[in-house]
Fold these 2 entries.
Entry 1:
Amino acid sequence: MKRRSLALATDLYELTMAAAYFCNDIRSIATFELFVRELPQPRRFLLVAGIEQALEYLEEVRFSSEDIDYLRHHPSFSAVPRAFFDYLEEFRFEGDVWAMPEGTVAFANEPIVRVTAPILQAQIVETFLLATVNFQTMIASKAARVVAAARGRPVIEFGSRRAHGSEAAMYAARAAYIGGCIGTSNVEAGLHFGIPTFGTIAHSWVMSFDEELTAFERYMQVFPGTTTLLIDTYDTVEAAKKIVAAGLKPQAVRLDSGDLATLSREVRRVLDAGGLTATRIFASGDLDEYRIAEILAQGAPVDAFGVGTRLSTSADAPNLGGVYKLVEVVADHERKARVKTSPGKLTLPGRKQVWRATAPDGVYVEDWVALAEEEPPIPGAQQLLQPMMAGGRRLGPRQETREIRENALQNLARLPEALRSLEPGPGLPVRITERLLAEQQRVAARWTGR
Amino acid sequence: MKRRSLALATDLYELTMAAAYFCNDIRSIATFELFVRELPQPRRFLLVAGIEQALEYLEEVRFSSEDIDYLRHHPSFSAVPRAFFDYLEEFRFEGDVWAMPEGTVAFANEPIVRVTAPILQAQIVETFLLATVNFQTMIASKAARVVAAARGRPVIEFGSRRAHGSEAAMYAARAAYIGGCIGTSNVEAGLHFGIPTFGTIAHSWVMSFDEELTAFERYMQVFPGTTTLLIDTYDTVEAAKKIVAAGLKPQAVRLDSGDLATLSREVRRVLDAGGLTATRIFASGDLDEYRIAEILAQGAPVDAFGVGTRLSTSADAPNLGGVYKLVEVVADHERKARVKTSPGKLTLPGRKQVWRATAPDGVYVEDWVALAEEEPPIPGAQQLLQPMMAGGRRLGPRQETREIRENALQNLARLPEALRSLEPGPGLPVRITERLLAEQQRVAARWTGR
């Protein structure tokens, strides 16, 4: 496969703008903030993920000689002087990064990542940061909904085959785990992130034998303790009867098609009547939070769920519109806040912090977006943006993915009940401090002349 | 970033089944076919893409010692004998592959890829093949619709920041180009696939200057011939007036927000009145085929489109449900066709071929799915599945992505008019030969007892 070129994993304009900053000798220090303007319906919260991969990228991004050659021969760069390409050879990201730790619950208009760096550096990294944080945050947020719908029953992420390629499959597995899945079928995610991996058998295993029962027996000989038998290849209830009659004792059986609520009841009856009360029922097949809620509302005796396509592609909200906006430029020791005044896209100027107020029982009450230099707007509020990188170097140790997941689950448990439901509705109230609003008006007036 | 482990870029059950085949000494030759059961609404055709990456993977897939160590210590494999792990060290894909060439138009129930290999090998590669072909085919199919809606105006893929991670961004760019985009903003795709890359400027460039006009002037000094100025940061029409007044002559201006039809007309008027009749208008901002059709129906003087998020995530149909089903097993010189009889999921048994019948004017009329050994069901029909790999080795030279795109455009032009429209409706008729239907009944009866 192609060797990746992460420095070129960006939009061309990031690099042409870099050349233009370079050639105009613009050395300003810029602050960009990554945030989502509106929660995609019907999401009522976001669960932050992908920060670890964003930081890894910032530490490692370099231009190879192949990358630089490509740019040098690109028609857009024909008038760009050699000095710029020499600079790219030495390129490092040397900025400061504040971010919400992975597993933090976030809402609209809250900076999730804040990058302060020489403007050229901060610009080049935009596309990668957005793609990474948008994607994993989207999947973790979806997973949290699916897991909530399962009401304590384990959910395993099964969606690699429909993810947007094999890398997306791996990171979808990571984000789904952070969102509360107990594991994934994706083995590469298991290797890289220490996530538990699970599997059952496929229809092809069953179909490769002349008799379904032989398929079951042969598989269980190799995996005596951990077998989940897939029983819907031909006739689900008949297959359960064959298992009982043959005296097989699988750990679980999987239903992957048909009316899962009805079939699970019939299969449960067959298993129980045959003494297989310890054999669990695992359901899969086009599931999402709504289907799971429906199946459980029908009282189906399903013990665990495998959720694939609709989780690994966040099918009902398949993209997250995170943006990365310039909020401040410091040039010649003068600090200048910036806003964009396009209709419907007015931004909040200046470096910001997000504060979270909590009720005495630990439940989240409201968030505040403030200028970074402001005092906490509510006494005792929690500061959500944390320093992650200074001068291009990581601060603090890497977190295990397992720890991130534990933090995420604790954070999700502190959401108000309504936000954890599947009902559409608003997120947590996000308030803007008076000082920040005044600053927004002041800066916007400078540009709109009003 | 993590080094990828492509052999583990799979579902765990592919590997447990591999161990079970190995331990049961099952050496059957299996044929699997990859196909889509139903076209996702409102798609009326699929444009095949991702075959090149699938073949690269099949040539290159190996288990590293790290991969094998991981499996050896995995709880599921605790009872698997050492011989299996020794086998994995030697693992190669040694099968035969037939596939539709990239850029072929495909429909429901038509095998797009057919793999014949020792069953263990054919099984392990399932997840990667599906993720790759599902994803790129989905994006190429979406791109073809977007490009059709633009009625000859160039479309550039701009969606990297919302793609499902940076690898998805690169392959989305490739697939969008195959589907007819003239290029992409994704530089890595430019490097790896020779795709033209384009860029304009971002709001941040404009916002980093105290005056919008200074931002325009400074950028044009560096890129005199190729500048597209983004003019919606503050006030779109005012920005156009400033450009004219200052005597700048950008190649194009970009509108990225607001009512694009109205703004484009006003901006066109300002530019023309100022003598900038050669300056093109480029539109972007939450576009897709429907928005483009709407803007053009209003007579908007837009010359080219940048399409991002909704293209790079195929937002209205964000996953393609391709499956990979066992259709035949050859063991002990006996060939056994296979079907799955789960409700709604009855498959077609045996190795198959797809034939396409064409009208005298070249327009596609109907497709036939037949057993591979059957004669063409219609004289002169085109055989869609082509041999791509034999014994694990590629047949024939790699195609340039540019050539694939040209073939795709020629193929798309042969679709009946209705299928190229945005109206929902059926695809091309896909007929099953009598012999294949009889075979399906015969094989299904064996399993359902009917």
Entry 2:
Amino acid sequence: MTSSRRLGIDVGGTKCMAVVLDPGGAVIAEQRRQTPKSSGAIIEAVAELAGALQPWDSIGVGMPGLVTRTGVLRAAPNLVGIEDLAVGKLLGDRLACVVHVDSDATCAAGAEWKVGAARGVDDFVMVTLGTGIGGGVVVGGALVRGANGFAGEIGHMVVDPDGPPCPCGRRGCWERYASGSGLVWLANTFRDGRGVVRAAELAGGDPAAVRGQHVADAAREGDSDALEVVGEYGRWVALGLVNLTNVLDPEMFVLGGGLAQDAELFLTPIREWFGQLLYAPELRPHPVIAFAQLGERAGAIGAALLAEVH
Amino acid sequence: MTSSRRLGIDVGGTKCMAVVLDPGGAVIAEQRRQTPKSSGAIIEAVAELAGALQPWDSIGVGMPGLVTRTGVLRAAPNLVGIEDLAVGKLLGDRLACVVHVDSDATCAAGAEWKVGAARGVDDFVMVTLGTGIGGGVVVGGALVRGANGFAGEIGHMVVDPDGPPCPCGRRGCWERYASGSGLVWLANTFRDGRGVVRAAELAGGDPAAVRGQHVADAAREGDSDALEVVGEYGRWVALGLVNLTNVLDPEMFVLGGGLAQDAELFLTPIREWFGQLLYAPELRPHPVIAFAQLGERAGAIGAALLAEVH
């Protein structure tokens, strides 16, 4: 049963975004505010957004971290000092209704599945290439949460046990190479640390200021070093997608994150390396690899849809 | 609805095993024969086993390789020259009934799920540590086949892109390190190729004759080199289990293969490394890691259960 007006709130490390969806899935209201620093203030901020956007018939909330199946935020790398926050229970008591809670990555996957790039696809993986890598997994027409609700932490698949250290405490996690930050790391360590000179120029001359966008811009200009880094980045992205394919054999990958602005630049090497790294590539159609469609609103839209996709 | 007598046939690289299950899942008849070399002879052999074990009410067949969702064996590393064999259709025509076909690893997972180590567990991964590594994935109470039927090829997850070459054509596949063959490789390359001397002694003095069992025997005797290799092997097994946990967050892993004879020897380092390599290990109960219960009959029992778990 589709609720008539569905409210979704995506709590991010810096801002909260709230949307109201009509029965067809279109955004009919939207509001943003900064994310406060303390647990109590975050709950209060979400409740205020919910009040400001009334009326609504259902509510879902996406949180940036590990969320249990009972709606508890266990840990959140981008919300300092916040742990074991019973988001579902606290908001449910406050608003006197059922509040669906899941991780932002799971919400984004649900959104792309229901109203975005993966509409009608019942086996796909959403891969968000940002500071780290977030994931959402849909298998057989259902979002996979896992025993504890922690499925989809695909950025911490280890792809090189002797690789660079990850803030998580291990080495060689996929997100060290294949996230947006990984692209910058590959650029800065290029040719034994000489880096991609043109990217540094575009960053105002400061190598420490290089972002993914500068590397992409340099590559689009035709800079050969930047193109080489983009190719190497494509290899690392593809390697993780191949690993996921070996486990799940999905129909599609949806890539989210800022790189979507330069989709073709990145998709070409990703698809090429995917074919080279896949097991038995000649025996199957390859999964579709495409960028997400919903941009920064994916999390909030997915939160609004949680009541349905739960 | 449970069929009264269910026939399952597991076609292996060297032998075929057939079992008949009673309604409770107990094996009430069993027959074996060698696996012939040609496609036509394999179909004939399976049909003969089916004839010899009559009466039965349903039939399932497990094949050693990549099986499509429509029962076609696309490729089989251990059946030379056999490809694109329409097992389901050919046997269905021959026997005039529906014949369920899936990969041997998926069958083994179904068997351990329904009548073995993972009874009642709806989210688990079966990992068979043999010459390679086979996998079967159960998510939310359903076997995961994937878009092409190729889900569960977990042995070809790349865990070190600069690692040793794999017969599949890539480098550093998980099964290079963590299969039964991987254990032997770790032993033979130990200390720059000096190898585990005691294991070679147990193999009759010939380092080329060392098998996993010799390494395990040496470790159980207390040989420090063998124990070090078993520890290193445990690290590689754990690394892949951690990667799978980051994707799926399962309740349990069931390990199959010959190592089950020395379960505790291997489980201790695997569990220890699992805790060290897992993302956010302190925030969740760890999945149960246990060895399989059905031994070499798992594939045939699972084939017999395909009609139900499909």
